[in-house]
Amino acid sequence: MAYTFPKDFLWGGATAANQFEGAYNVDGKGLSVQDVTPRGGVPAKPGDHNPLITDKPTADNLKLEGIDFYHRYKEDIALFAEMGFKVFRLSIAWSRIFPNGDELEPNEAGLQFYDKVFDELSKYGIEPLVTLSHYETPLHLARQYNGWANRDLISFYERYVSTVFTRYKDKVKYWLTFNEVNSVLHAPFMSGGIATPFEELSKQDLYQAVHHELVASALATKVGHEINPDFKIGCMVLAMPAYGMTSNPLDQLAVRQFENQNYLFSDIHARGKYPNYIKRFFKENDIEIQFAEGDEELLKHTVDFISFSYYMSVAAAHNPEAYNSGRGNIMGGISNPYLEASEWGWQIDPVGLRLVLNDFYDRYQLPLFIVENGLGAKDILVEGPNGPTVEDDYRIDYLQKHLVQVGEALQDGVELLGYTTWGPIDLVSASTAELSKRYGFIYVDRNDDGTGTLARYKKKSFNWYKEVIATNGESLYR
């Protein structure tokens, strides 16, 4: 049965500065951890090259140029407006504003760039949704301080967010503190700028870094609401539901333990304190979180909404070695025999999105926001009646099935602010640093070897998504 989404539903797309802006050394920008990871940021494995010994970015790092949004933002925003975007998620590159991360004064040229972007979005009536830290910790903070393992980063982050909150208080309403904040457990360098090699990083130091990030996130929420009480500030977590491989109660317990790793982050953001289940985990693993004076009170500054990425689900078992492991967005799991997978091994599970929406809403009774969802695929550019295009029916099928499940969740009673597809325009993959893993409605002529004109072409999915937005979801049921 056809369903029309709420009249104020925010349709749009999501990006990250380090994956599409380019201009890595322009207008005073400093280096970020992304500028020295030309092979992608996850997963860190024993024996991997330590990016911190790289003296300068290497020419084969596609993220250095990205898709040159820095110089083409007007053209790209016009295309988003043509699709009818109500919202556009982007991140501010911390190292554009504070090149090393620990300066006392911001870089004015960096601030001016985002002024221009927000003004351009405003021209088309597109609401910006801004991620404050999206896998792009200033490299100096990783090298000099060991990233979020060092409590000093809280004050550096506070200075940064206070600067951008104040600068853009009349231009931006929706903010996210950290992208996929729970990913620091699996990709500590990319997610948290932690320089300690993964295999040498103790659980004590890792969870202490988590604590620093959570305190910083709560502090940002407090500061943001003081600067503009109308700000809507959310957390952002990587959602990956798990199913038990069998009805064995031990498999169901494994599901609970897997999902608690992720719930930890949203629980603290939404409830303002550490949950009891993690206290047992800390005790059993000899972890003792060091609270500074005031931390407990700061954590009580909870978020206005919960946002998340959703790409796939996994299966869990008490004896995972007996099954084939799957690959996912940072976090792996066991392959589910009932699901198909993308070219990159990510299992496709539209119903899982409905489950996530209901689980989060039942747990927190806070508004939700789907801020990443999409299909990475190897697109082939062909000549169409109106010029080059991509016949990406597979992407349309993926998104249509997921959005129908979003509609089901809305009818279940879930309060959902909006939906932004990941990579509405092709950009560089965070996990693999490839451009051939394309998500967009807009094809960008750039290849994994760095060649290409950077020209933009509309894929078949461009007009499909345009119609979805124009009909407020009704076309999904035709």
TrEMBL record:
Q: Which domain of life is it from?
A: Bacteria
Query: What's the protein called, per UniProt?
Result: Glycoside hydrolase family 1 protein
Q: Which family does it belong to?
A: Belongs to the glycosyl hydrolase 1 family.
Transcription among keywords: no
NCBIfam families assigned to the protein according to its UniProt record, in alphabetical order? PRK09593.1, PRK09852.1
What InterPro entries does the record point to?
A: GH, GH_1_N_CS, Glyco_hydro_1, Glyco_hydro_1_AS
Q: Which UniProt keywords apply?
A: Glycosidase, Hydrolase
Q: Which residues form the active site?
A: 372 (nucleophile)
MF terms (GO), sorted A to Z: hydrolase activity, acting on glycosyl bonds
Q: What class of enzyme is it?
A: hydrolase
